[in-house]
Amino acid sequence: MQSMKKYVAECIGTFVLVFFGCGTAVAVGCNAEFGGGYILTALAFGLVIVAMAYSIGNVSGCHVNPAVSLAMLINGKLSGKDFVGYVVAQVIGAIVGGGLLKLIFPGEEGGALGSNGLYNDKIFVSLVIECILTFVFVLTIMGVTSKKEFGSQAGIVIGLTLTLVHILGIHFTGTSVNPARSLGPAIFAGWDSFKVVWVFILAPLVGAALAAVCYRWLDRKAAPKKIYEHHDKKKKK
After folding, report:
1. What's the pTM?
2. Main-chain phi, psi angles of 56, to 5 degrees
C-alpha cells in the first residue's frame, strides 16, 4: 500500500511538471527576442519542482524523473522494484499531461506541445548538451539530498537548479533532462517530435548515471583524508 502511494505521488508530480512546464512553453511561445519566454518557461519548470518537493516529497521523494530515479538506484537509495514502479508512474503522468495539453492547445496553436528538438538537427551535439545539463542537475540533487540538515532547503535548491539548466538549455534543445517529460508531449506532438525523442530519453539517463557515479566518488574522496581519519577515530571511541 505504501509503495502504491509513492507511485501515485510520482504520477501526480510528473503530470504537474509536464502540464505546467510544457503548458507554459506553449502559452508564451519561448520567444527568444526579448528572453521573456525563456525565463517564464524556465521558472515554470523550476517552480513546479519546488511545489511538488514540499507536497509529495515526503511521500515519494519527488523524483518525477526517470533519470533521477536511476541515479538513486545506482547509489542504493531506491530498490529495483521501486525503480520500475517509479518509472512507470512517471511515464503515465507525463502521457496524461501531454494528452491534456493536446486537448487544451489543439492544432497549430499547440505546435510541438513543449516537446524537445535537436539543436540544428545535430544528434551528437544534442546528446552532449543534454548529458551535461542532466549531469549538473542530478549532481545537485545527489548533494543536497545527502544530508538531513539540507532537507528544508532541498526543494528550493533543486527547483532553482532546474531553472538554471533551462535558462541555458532551452536555446539548444528545449531542455529535457527528464525522459518522461520528453516522451509525454512527443507522443501527441507528431512524428517530427517523436522520431527524435530517443535522444531525450538516452541522454538524460546517461548524464544521470555519470552524476551518480561521480557523486559517490566525490562524497568520500573530495574531502581531505585527515578529516575522515579524525571522524573514524571518534567512531571507534
Report:
1. 0.91
2. -105, -5
